[in-house]
Write a structure and sequence with these properties.
About 10% of the residues lie in helices and about 30% in strands. By secondary structure, the chain is mainly beta. It has one domain. It is elongated, with a radius of gyration of 13 Å.
Length: about 70
């Protein structure tokens, strides 16, 4: 959603809620830096879940890796 807002949806019942911080850090996603190809670290910056590469000083929002809610 706009601004990087991420929800977790339950298709069977149609319910959804915001993705809790602890659930984000338990995702165990391996995200590669587009520049150096090293693994990026999960971080929380300004209420956005991101994957960051400290070496290259860049980040990717979790929301940018997921399909838009309207496309599901």
């Amino acid at each position: 959603m706009e601004g990087g807002y991420v929800t977790r949806n339950r298709p069977r019942c149609g319910d959804k809620d915001t993705l809790p911080e602890d659930a984000f850090f338990k995702l165990s996603l391996w995200v590669a830096c587009p520049t150096c190809k090293q693994e990026m670290t999960a971080q929380l910056i300004e209420k956005n879940y991101i994957y960051a590469c400290d070496k290259c000083q860049l980040f990717i929002r979790l929301a940018d890796l997921l399909p838009r809610w309207a496309d599901l």
